[in-house]
Specification:
Layout: H1 4-13, H2 17-24, H3 27-40, E1 59-60, E2 67-72, E3 75-79
Helix pairs in contact: 1-3
Length: about 120
């Protein structure tokens, strides 16, 4: 677990892509490497973000290794979950709350309004 500190630092920088570019030069490579390290130490549900990475954005069953939720940015490309949140291949329970079918949010912009912050 010596690499855990590296993972935290690299993932933390993910929210500031420009800072990551200055420090590491290649954020996609960095995120993929951090994900690989996390999976090697036993974490099952680790994702890359802010970069195009079909494999790294997807969810895999810890029981059989099958891709159970495929993601390509905001689009769901694969859905192999049962209605009760189990792998459709081996029936391993997957932590989380799931519906029988995926949503259809897709890539779109949604306007939001943020009110003023009032401190106590």
């Amino acid at each position: 677990m010596d690499d855990a500190g590296k993972i935290v630092k690299e993932v933390k920088v993910a929210s500031e892509p420009q800072a990551l570019l200055k420090v590491l030069g290649n954020p996609a490579c960095c995120f993929k490497r951090a994900r690989d390290i996390a999976r090697k130490v036993g974490l099952h549900f680790v994702y890359t973000g802010n970069v195009h990475d079909d494999m790294g954005q997807s969810t895999y069953c810890p029981g059989c290794g099958e891709r159970i939720v495929g993601r390509d940015w905001y689009d769901i490309t694969t859905w192999r979950l049962t209605g009760d949140g189990r792998c459709g291949t081996c029936s391993t329970a997957i932590p989380g709350l799931f519906e029988a079918r995926p949503g259809s949010w897709g890539q779109r912009r949604v306007s939001i309004r943020i009110g003023s912050l009032q401190c106590p």
